[in-house]
Amino acid sequence: MSFDVIPFAGALHDTASLRRIEAAAARSLGDSHELMRRAGQSAWRELLAVWPQAQRVVVVCGPGNNGGDGYVLAQHAQQAGRDVQVVRLPGDAPRGDLARRAAEAYTGRVVEFAQSLPACDVIVDALFGIGFSRAPDDATRALIEAVNAHPAPVLALDVPSGVDADRGSVPGAAVDAARTVEFIASKSGLRTGAALDHVGTLTLATLQLGVDVFDGIAPQAERIAPVDLPRWLAPRRRDSHKGSNGRVLCIGGEHGSGGAIMLCAQAALRSGAGLVEVATRERHIAPLLSRLPEAMAHEVGDARALHDALDRADAIAVGPGLGQQDWGLHLYERAVASAKPLLLDADALNLLAIRPFALPADAVITPHPGEAARLLGITTAQVQQDRFAAARALSERYACVVVLKGAGTVVAAAHETPRVVAAGNPGMAVGGMGDVLSGVIAALRAQGMNAFDAASCGALLHAAAGDAAAHEGGERGLLPSDLMPWLRHFANRDPYVPEPMR
Ligand SMILES: NC(=O)C1=CN([C@@H]2O[C@H](COP(=O)(O)OP(=O)(O)OC[C@H]3O[C@@H](n4cnc5c(N)ncnc54)[C@H](OP(=O)(O)O)[C@@H]3O)[C@@H](O)[C@H]2O)[C@@H](O)CC1
Ligand SMILES: Nc1ncnc2c1ncn2[C@@H]1O[C@H](COP(=O)(O)OP(=O)(O)O)[C@@H](O)[C@H]1O
Ligand SMILES: [K+]
């Protein structure tokens, strides 16, 4: 596998930056074709390393330079004695000089696609890369569907065809790759949303370029993974005490939703908060204390008790199970008016959408895509079409830090490079999982982390705990409570876990 110079391991780029990097690389090599030659050769080496036994290779080539990479790979496979066929749509002969040159150098068979693909051991997807620009037409869709229906595994070159490499969305059909080998730099859109069901295992071929080709080009986003946790989670000072580890106040738990605030409080304790208080409905206090005697629970009908609890808190999480009735609205307004480090989730976000209050400085909001859509006045599908843009729009509109949850959680704040979490799994799509995240982030805030770092580290810690819990017993049936021991584990120990690059 090809790992050369990686300028900054978590750096993610968009296609506009990649075009500039490619241009700088072509200038420094003095020849654009050299880049394509290296791309095709790296991909061939990867294919050989992963599927050494593959004898029959089908390379599906598009009309652009991604197709050009495919012809270079096909030529290597041919020279290595493999049975190779390039398949392309009628009319998809290479259009540009680079790809045409690569196609002319390939001496093997080229067949036009008609309904089905030949039998083979591996399919190489070289249909579209970063030049993919619109939903596929019927003929292209039929080809993509034939690739996906074929039993052979797929190696995608640069981008699984049909995935938008900037936004992570799939406007029509997209190739389901077993692996994707990215060229030159990692792409932001392959780390979030619908893309995650298409990329398979991601690897990076940097094409032996020097770091100078990245000069003056800032990454669009940063990928964060469990190995990054020690960046934020230094060991505790030996002489710390419960006060120095922060007091969290969790507000919520309307009638019928008492479990939400209990999960939030428990997660805050398991993420290292020194003290956790809960302001909830009276009838939830006894069950909460019987499960979680370390918490201090208050009935908040008494205005003085609420005032004192708000005053004592180092960080406040408001929203889990809060409801949107008068009780919840009153608590929401008091929490927002408190000017304390604040986290808003669930019903606090629904209330924010209908009663926009100016949030205190450095507040964190943790919407799922549905909540994000309500806050932005758009549809959930529009949020998912461009999760980076939605997170950025929320951070601007509400002047806060945003954790846009879901596959490939995006953390955004004004003047910060957005971060995308390379952990988490669909087992976490279950009621109560977001309440756990609220407790984690509030605990990190109370321990002194700034809002953007607490949001990033908290989303990562939560996702890592979710992955560990899913690894133990599977994704289906995973419960938010299953994360609790793992939150403690990842908040303390060397969190390195071998993982595929995402
Ligand atoms: N430049 C370099 O130095 C290097 C580049 N490299 C490689 O080049 C790739 C980028 O190449 P690229 O820019 O030619 O775009 P590419 O992804 O092949 O697609 C464009 C073609 O597809 C077409 N098309 C798009 N969408 C479509 C749709 N839905 N349905 C149908 N057609 C559609 C589009 O048509 P048009 O929109 O122009 O009508 C155009 O013809 C990059 O990912 C990497 O693999 C490496 O070799 C390293 C060096
Ligand atoms: N498919 C998925 N992949 C990764 N993480 C997921 C996935 N589905 C849900 N999650 C995570 O689980 C949590 C669910 O939160 P949320 O939807 O607010 O649940 P609830 O409101 O029921 O507590 C979020 O942190 C989200 O990122
Ligand atoms: K491709």
TrEMBL record:
Main function: Catalyzes the dehydration of the S-form of NAD(P)HX at the expense of ADP, which is converted to AMP. Together with NAD(P)HX epimerase, which catalyzes the epimerization of the S- and R-forms, the enzyme allows the repair of both epimers of NAD(P)HX, a damaged form of NAD(P)H that is a result of enzymatic or heat-dependent hydration.
Binding-site list for AMP: 405-409, 434
Record InterPro entries: Carbohydrate_kinase_pred_CS (IPR017953), CARKD (IPR000631), Nnr (IPR030677), Ribokinase-like (IPR029056), YjeF_N_dom (IPR004443), YjeF_N_dom_sf (IPR036652)
Subunit-structure text: Homotetramer.
Residues noted as binding (6S)-NADPHX in the record, renumbered to the chain: 65-69, 129-135, 158, 260, 321, 368, 435
Entry's family note: In the C-terminal section; belongs to the NnrD/CARKD family.
One Pfam family of this chain: Carb_kinase
Cofactors demanded by this protein: Mg(2+); K(+)
Keywords: ATP-binding, Isomerase, Lyase, Metal-binding, Multifunctional enzyme, NAD, NADP, Nucleotide-binding, Potassium
Enzyme nomenclature, EC number: 4.2.1.136, 5.1.99.6
Protein name, per record: Bifunctional NAD(P)H-hydrate repair enzyme
All copies of domain YjeF C-terminal, residue ranges: 225-494
Residues covered by the YjeF N-terminal domain: 18-215
Signal peptide: none
